[in-house]
Design brief:
Elements: E1 2-7, H1 12-27, E2 32-37, H2 40-45, E3 53-56, E4 59-63, H3 69-78
Parallel strand pairs: 1-2
Antiparallel strand pairs: 1-3, 3-4
Helix pairs in contact: 1-3
Length: 80
């Protein structure tokens, strides 16, 4: 199972990234756990300085922008 972390302050872009991640996971055949992180201490300790951000299995894949559903699906498939 892959672990997807969404680093979010709750802004519009963060909410949109959350929606796109949920859609991508739903459409993907890969089993994923989605974890939303909104605690600023956890966010900065993960090395995130721009939100929204997304990590897969602890590796930051997206920061400071909203990825499309298709891009997220590609990232999920490409990550071990």
């Amino acid at each position: 199972m892959k672990k997807i972390q969404i680093f979010s302050s709750g802004c519009f872009k963060c909410t949109k990234l959350e929606e796109n991640v949920s859609k991508a996971v739903h459409q993907s055949s890969v089993e994923c756990e989605i974890i939303k992180i909104s605690d600023i201490t956890e966010i900065t300790s993960a090395g995130v300085m721009m939100m929204p951000a997304m990590a897969i299995n602890g590796v930051i894949k997206v920061r400071g922008r909203v990825s499309t559903v298709e891009e997220i699906m590609e990232l999920i498939d490409a990550t071990d």
